[in-house]
Amino acid sequence: MDLVAALTGYSQTTRHIRIDTAMPGAFVVERFHGREGVNESFRFEIDVLSSEPFLDLTPLIGHAARLRLATSAGERSWNGYVTHAAYADSDGEITRYRLMMESWFALLRLRRNCLYFVDVDTKDICERVFGDYPQARRRYELKEPLRKFSLRGQYRETDDTFVLRQLAEAGLSFRIEHAQDAGKEASGDHTVVVFDRRAPFRHGSTIAYNLQDVGDPDGVITQFSERHQMVPDRVVATSWKADELLALAGHAQQPPEDKAPVLPVREIYDGQRAGRFDTIDDAQRFAEQRLDALRLPKRIHYGAGSSRTLEIGAVHTLAGYLDRAITFVPLSIEHEAVNNLGADIGALLGRGELDKGLYRNRFVAVPDGTPIVPPHRDRPIVHGVQTAIVVGEAGSRVSSTRDHQVRVQFPWMRGTAPLPGGLTDTASRSNPAGHAPGDHRSGVLARVAESSAGPNFGHAFTPRVGAEVVIGFESGNIDMPVVLGQVYGGRVQPPFAAGEGSDANHPGTLTGLQTQTLDGQSGSRWVMDDAAGQLRHELSNSTANSRLAQGYLIDQQGAMRGAYRGEGFELATDGWGVVRAGEGVLVSSTARRLATSTQMDVAQSVGQLKQAVRTAQGMSESAAAAHAGGLAANAAQADFLKAIDPAQDGKYTGAVNGQSATKASGAQRDGGEPVERFAAPAVLMESPENIVLTTPHSAVSYAAQHVHLTAQRDAHVAAAATVAAASGDAVSLYAAAGGLRAIASDGPVSVEAHTSTMEILADQSVRITSTDDRIDVLAKDAIVLQQGPNRITLKGGDITVETPGQFLVKSGAHPFPGPAAQSVSLPPLPIPAPLALFDEQIRFVNEDGEPLGNVAYQLKLADGSTVSGVTDDNGRTERVSTDGPTAIQSATLTPTQVVDCCGRTSDVPPPAVKVDIKGVGTHDTLVGSSEQSVTVKGESRPLTDGEIEMAKTVFQDSIDYSAVRVHKGSYFWFNLQSKRTAVTPNNTMYFREEDFVEDFSVVSEEYPRRGWFMHEMTHVWQHQRGYAVRWHALTVTIRGESAYRYEIEPGQVFSDFNMEQQGNLVSDYFALIVVDNRGELIHAQPGSKNQLRQVLAPLLQDPKDASNLPK
C-alpha cells in the first residue's frame, strides 16, 4: 500500500488533531502528550508523521506553532513556540518526528542575569523582564496592593527562576490562556495572566460525569475523587526594620473546624531575615498568603476523563456526580491524544488506536473559592563577600544618607557608566540604560557596618566616592548589601605604606588613621608608632598645622619617620590655641613618681603659698607700724590659698557620681585622705625650678581687683627704656631694712605733691647735696628753717632770725650795699584729669556690617551734654566718660571724605544723618575696653514690575531681579557718595532722598530718571556676573568726568570699556534705540545708533556671558 497516499488521501477535516507550523503541510499529527498548570509553563510533546525522511527542521525552532483539537463547537487551540524538533524513527517510507511546543515563558529559562531593580513592585519587575521578550503577551488581574521595593536583585538566576520567586513572595500566581484563532496562520498567541488570591476566575464549561466515555462529543469525566490532608493552621511572619528599630509581625490563623479533634497548633514561624516588610500590613498580608499557600493541599480533587473543554484557572462544574453538582478549578492538566488517521495507517504502523483516535486527560483541582497562592520559593544565597566602588554625585567626595548608607556599584553591573573594564551593552530591550549609572543615581544603597553603633554613639566611617569597599549580604540576600570595610589596592595606597615595594624607612611600625579633605588635600591624622624604644602617639590636623604628639617625638612626613625632636608631649598649632577649664587649670613641672598622685595635687604650691602669705603678712604689719601703706591684697592671697589647700576648702567633700572621692588606703581603692580639687576656677602654674615668661613684643597683665607679687628673696623690675607706675589712689614704698634710693644717672629726679603737703622725714640726718650746681629752695609764701628753738623765716620782703642764744656771723668782710629784690617764677603744677568711673565706646557699622570710618559724629547724652569727633578707620568713636551711668540717646553723622560716582552730580553737600540709639550708655563694666556696635539702617524697596521690564530690554533674564533693592538714602559711610549722586556697590542702588522715586520706569519731565536707572542696573548686572564693582569704583571714578565719557572705535566691543562707560553705553542704547527719546540721555555726547548696536551686540546676544565684563 502507498503510505504516502494513505496519509494525504485521508481528509484533514475528519482528523480531530491538527498542527500548524512554519512548515505548512509538512506534518500530520500522530499523537501528543502535554501538561499545563497554574504557575507553570505548558509543554506539549507532539509526534508527527511525514513522508519526507530528511526534512530540515531548522525553520521550526523558535517559530510559532498551533496544536488543534476538535470539539463539538469547532476546535480548541493551544498556541506556543517550537523549542525542540528531532528525528524519532522511520520505516523507510513514513518518518516520525518529535516536536516540543512550549510557552514563551519557557524562554525565560534560557537567560541568566545579574541585575538590580530599583524602586519597583512585583508587577514592575515582571514588566522589566518580560519586556525583553517580544513574544511576551501578559495581563494582570490584581486586587490586593503590591509592596514597592527599594532594591530587588537578580543575581546569577535565570529569568524564570527569578520571576517565579518574585511572584511567590508577592503571593501572585499565573495561568496561561490561549487565543482561539484556528484558521489563521500560526501566531503562538497565548497570554500569561498574573493574578492574586482575590481575583475572580472566569466560568468554564459544565462537564458530565460518566463511568464510561460514551455519548458526549466533548467528552466526560470518568474518574473524580477527593483527597484530604492535614496542613499547618497558623503562620507567624516577622522581620526587623532597621531604619525604624522596629520588629514587624503578621499573624494568620485558620479557624477551627466543626467536630474536629483537638490537635496541637501547627505553626509555621518565619523570621528568617530583616527588611522583608515596610509596614504591619505588609507583614499581615504575607502571613495570610503563606497560610493560604500551605492550606492549598488540604482538599484536593483528582480526576480523569476525556473532556476536551477542561481548562486550568477556570471554574468548571461537574454534573451528575453523586447526584449533585460540584464546582472546581483545575490546577494542572495532563493531556494524551492519538489522531484518527484511519485503519490503513493504523495497520501499516501496527497501532490500532490510530483508526478512530482518542483523547484522555488527568487533572488536579481545588474546590471553587479556594485561594490559590503559590508555595514559598527560597531565594538563592550569595556566598562570601564581594567588592564594589562607592559612587556619588559628580564632583562630590561624599555621598551618604542620614542612616549611614552609601551608594555602591559592583563590577558586574552593566549600564551607561560601568566600572573600568565593565560592560555598557545591557542586552536588554526594556532597560537599555542598564543599572550602572556610575553616580548618585545608583539604586544600590548599602548600610555601613561599624564595630560599634548605637543611639547617637559608636564609630562613624563614611567611605568616600571612588573607594573600594568590601560588601557582605545579610542572610546571603543580594537585596541587602552591607559595607563591611574598605580595601587598598591599585590606585588606592595605604597612608602609612611600608614594607616590600615601598619607600618607607621602617618595616611597618606605623598604625593609625589618615583622612583627606573633600578636595583631596591632607586632613587629619592619628598615628601610633610602635618602633622599639621609640613609642609615639600623634593627633594632627592640616588646618593651621595643629598637632598633639606624645612620647618619642620625631618629624614625620607621610610614611617616612624623620628626625628626632624630643620626648614628652607637644601641643602646637600655627593658629590660635586655647586651654579652657571651668573648674580650674593646673600647670606643673613637678614630677609624680609612678603617677601615684591625684589630678589636682598641689602640695608643693600650697607649702610655698603658705610661706608667701606669712611673708606678705609680716611685711604688711611692719609697714603699718612705720605709718607706710599696708598690703591690702593679703586677704585675697589668703583666700586663694584657702581655695587650693586640701586642709581647708581645696578638696572633695563627698562622693562623686556614686564613688567615694578619697585616696587609696592600703589595699583598698578608697578610705584615705580626700582627693584634692580647686574650690574656685583658678589657674595655677607651679615648678620646682624656674618659670619664665618671655615675648619679643608686649606682655599684658590685668586684674580687676588685686595684683599680688611676693618674693621670698629679691624682686627685680628692669626696663631698657622707661619704668612707669600709675596709681588711682595712693603709692607707698616701704623698706623694712636697708635704704630706699631714687637715682637718675642721666636726667632730673622730680618728686611732686600737686594738691597737698610733701614731707621729707629722717630719724637722723638729712643731706641735700649738689655737686656741680646749686640748690634752690623756692616757695610762693614763706620759707621757714627751724632747729630746736632757732628759726629763720623768709616771708615777703623780710628775713626774720629768731634764737634764744647767740647769733654769730663770721666773715672776712661785712658789706651791706643796700636793699635789693629779685622775683622768682614758680613752675605751674599740672591738674590731672579725673579718673573715668563710667565710660563706653561706640562702633558705627552699615547694614552689611562694614565700619563707617572717617565720619563726623555728634553724640547726644541723656544729661544734655554732647560729644563730638570723627570715627577712626574701624568706625569707632572716642571713649565717652561720665561720672555716673548715662544713656547715649542719638548720633548725628556726616561724611568727611567723598568721591563722586555714578550719574548726575550737583553742589549740594552730603546730608547729615540722625541715628537714634537705644540700649547704649556709659557703665562701670570693663572700663576702658568695652564697646557697643550701632547699625545705621536705611529704607529700601524691591524693583517694580515696570523697572524689571525696562531692565529686561537689555539684560533679559541674566539678573536675579528678586535680589535687587532700591535704597532711599545715601551710601555715604562707604566714602563713595557725595553731592547729588547714585551708588550701586552690589545688589542695592542707593539714591539720595531728593532723587528717590517709587518707580523709575515712569517717564519724568524733570530729569532722565529712566536713563539714570539703566546706568545703575548695569552695575547690578556687573556685580551679579562676578565683577567687584565697589573696589573697581575706587580706581575708576577717581578720574572724574573722564571716567564716564567714551569714544567708540571700529571693532570695539562692550568689554573694551570700563564699568562707568558700560553704564553710559547701556543708558544711551536704552534712550536712543529702545525708547527712541533723547530726553532720557544722561550726558551730552552719546554714540550713534549703529555704533551702540555694534558695541552692545555681544551683551544683547548673551547677557549671561561674563566675558562681557570690563577687561
From TrEMBL:
Compositional bias (Polar residues): 656-665
Lineage: Bacteria, Pseudomonadati, Pseudomonadota, Betaproteobacteria, Burkholderiales
Gp5/Type VI secretion system Vgr protein OB-fold domain segment(s): 444-488
Listed name of the protein: Type VI secretion system tip protein VgrG
Chain segments carrying region Disordered: 417-441, 654-674
Location of the Putative type VI secretion system Rhs element associated Vgr domain: 517-623
Domain DUF2345 residue range list: 671-820
Pfam families (alphabetical): DUF2345 (PF10106), Phage_base_V (PF04717), Phage_GPD (PF05954), T6SS_Vgr (PF13296)
InterPro entries: Gp5/Vgr_OB, T6SS_Rhs_Vgr_dom, T6SS_Vgr_RhsGE, Vgr_OB-fold_dom_sf, VgrG2_DUF2345
